[in-house]
Amino acid sequence: MKQTYRAKTGFVLGWVWLAFVAFNVWDLIAHYNGKPSLVALAVLGALTALVYVIALRPATVFTEAGLVGRNPFRTTFVPWASVEDVTVSHSINVHHSGEQELRLWTPMSSARERARAQRRGMPKQERRGRFSAEPTLSRGEQAAAEAFAGKTHADWVGDQIRERSESARRRDEEATPARVSWSYDSIAMVAVAVALAIAAIVIA
Predict the structure, then answer these.
(1) pTM here?
(2) Nearest CA to 176 among 67, 86, 101, 80?
(3) Residue 39: which residues within 8 A CB-CB, separation 6 or more?
(4) Cα separation of 36 and 159, whole Å?
(5) Across the strands, what pairs with 96?
(6) Could you tell me the keywords of this UniProt record (predicted)?
(7) Rounded distance, CA 13 to CA 32, Å?
(8) Nearest to 126 by CA among 94, 143, 106, 149
(9) Which helix (H) or strand (E) holds 61?
């Protein structure tokens, strides 16, 4: 079963942008007025290509066989047994197949998210003021809170990668080299964006 992790804010904003573009394309076509409409369409197309590459395409995917890192222009598949170490800073860095490293674009941890996670990991008496009150949590909620205490979403995903790689090694799975392929959809989108930008300049 696949599990996919994305930058939720960027992903949602990307789809909001697509809805915005769809409405504006319809409006520009319905009220076409020559060069200004063509320039606006070209600009919208170029920006949409960038939004796709940066916000919609990146994802971290867990499969039964291994880890799939979808970055803007490349897709890397790393078998679980080939994962040697995982470090988490601003991004998740997966060390595999000797000297190689895969930097995942999502999820990432900002300085603000890291600060919030550190506050969650502090003892309760240090976090709450004298008159503050915290809601009573159920047993499941308390377990989840303890699991995430002091951790960002990126830290948690990094832990899951470590656990899966260790489990694969315990099953004596073969550590095979990672497979890297280009993202032809992203390359095509950027090519279209460049072509639209050039067209907008020429038309203007």
Answers:
(1) 0.79
(2) 80
(3) 200, 203, 204
(4) 52
(5) 83, 100
(6) Membrane, Transmembrane, Transmembrane helix
(7) 27
(8) 149
(9) strand 59-62
Q: Which residues pair with 92 in a beta bridge?
A: 88, 104
Element at 107 (helix H, strand E): none
What pLDDT digit, counting tens, does each position of 20-76 carry? 999 999 999 898 888 888 888 888 988 999 999 999 999 999 999 999 999 999 999
Q: How far apart are CA 190 and CA 50, in angstroms?
A: 7
Please answer whether residues 183 and 70 qualify as being in contact, where contact means their C-beta atoms are separated by less than 8 angstroms. yes
Q: Which two tokens stand for residue 83?
A: 């994962």
Alpha-carbon distance 162 to 2, whole Å?
17
Residue 165's contacts (CB-CB under 8 Å, 6 or more residues apart) are 80, 81, 82, 83, 84, 86
- DSSP letter for 31, please: T
- C-alpha separations of 114 from 29, 89, 197 in Å: 46, 9, 38
Q: Which amino acid is at 10?
A: G
DSSP string, 116-151: HHHHHTS-HHHHS-TT---PPPPHHHHHHHHHHTT-
Give the length of the chain. Answer: 204
